[in-house]
Amino acid sequence: MTLSAENVTWLAKGKPIIDGVSLHVNEGEILGLVGPNGSGKSTLIRMLAGLRDPAAGQVLLNGTPMARMKRRTIAQTMAVVEQHADTSDAITVRDAVKLGRTPWLSPLEPWSERDDEIVDDALDAVKMAHKSGQSWRTLSGGERQRVHIARALAQQPQILLLDEPTNHLDIHNQIAILALIQRLRRTTVVALHDLNQALGCDRVAVLDQGKLVDIGPPDEVVTTERLSETFAVSASFLTDPSDGTRIIRFH
Ligand SMILES: Nc1ncnc2c1ncn2[C@@H]1O[C@H](COP(=O)(O)OP(=O)(O)OP(=O)(O)O)[C@@H](O)[C@H]1O
Ligand SMILES: [Mg+2]
Predict the structure, then answer these.
(1) Phi-psi bin for 218: left (phi > 0), alpha (psi -120 to 50), beta?
(2) Residues 6+ apart with CB under 8 A from 59
(3) Among 43, 120, 171, 175, which residue's CB has the most CB atoms within a 10 Å radius?
(4) pLDDT tens digits for 180-224?
(5) Rounded to whole angstroms, how far apart are CA atoms 47 and 218?
């Protein structure tokens, strides 16, 4: 399943927040989305998820314009974890994850043991099974984030959109979630602030003031020039002697 944006634009009070962005994510590819605060990452993810309608341009799933697809089909295809996701109801962790099964249920296909297994697996994947009976409201920030990711996993999407999924997570859980994303190998767009983490994506897209200023392999896109121009930082690249990977050191 591929995901494309064709010249999408989103306006706030007539001002472009996303300005003519086109990109294509291949089947099973992990695209890292980076850019300074306010550059439009969350806005673009919301448009790709169908939560915000573009003022111009269109989003396509496997070549089909999303605007022509049924809500239910989109929800069976794509899951999104938003940056400021919330669940206001006083529900348990398990119930929050069960919500991910909603697009798959119907009068003809009611809740089954298989759905319970999928929910169990999703809770295990983010290491939250031991808290499944706890009220969602009482969770810590990082635990909430992991439950949101579990809800997205329970949806069994072919396309995964994640807006800063490692936000609030301790370093162990950051690495665990990034490894999980790599293992799942869905068609993925993941907004990240940690540029060293972005280096681990298949390709990186850079947003700057609503415009896509570069997209390509991390080594070609994340350069000292780009860091200086878009992020206003000077940086050097080091090599990890243990495995030869590139590391960014910021000055
Ligand atoms: N509904 C809105 N009305 C007015 N401005 C908006 C609206 N939604 C977003 N914006 C503005 O659009 C810009 C992009 O916001 P967005 O949340 O997409 O940025 P971001 O790249 O995700 O930033 P961050 O790294 O801080 O999460 C911001 O300047 C924001 O203030
Ligand atoms: Mg954001």
Answers:
(1) alpha
(2) 3, 4, 5, 6, 8, 47, 48, 50, 65, 66, 67
(3) 43
(4) 999 999 999 999 999 999 999 999 999 999 999 999 999 999 999
(5) 24
* Of 142, 5, 7, 124, nearest in space to 65 by CA: 5
Alpha-carbon distance values, 157 to 73, 104, 150 (Å): 11, 11, 12
Contact 103, 69 (CB under 8 A): no
For 112, half-sphere exposure in the C-beta direction (CA atoms, 13 angstrom radius) is 8
CATH 3.40.50.10170 fits 3-250, yes or no: no
Choose the residue to mutate in 42, 44, 81, 206 for probing ligand 1, maximizing ligand atoms within 8 Å of C-beta: 42
Which residue's structure tokens are 């003031």? 209
State how far the Cα of 122 lies from the Cα of 119, in Å rounded to an integer.
5
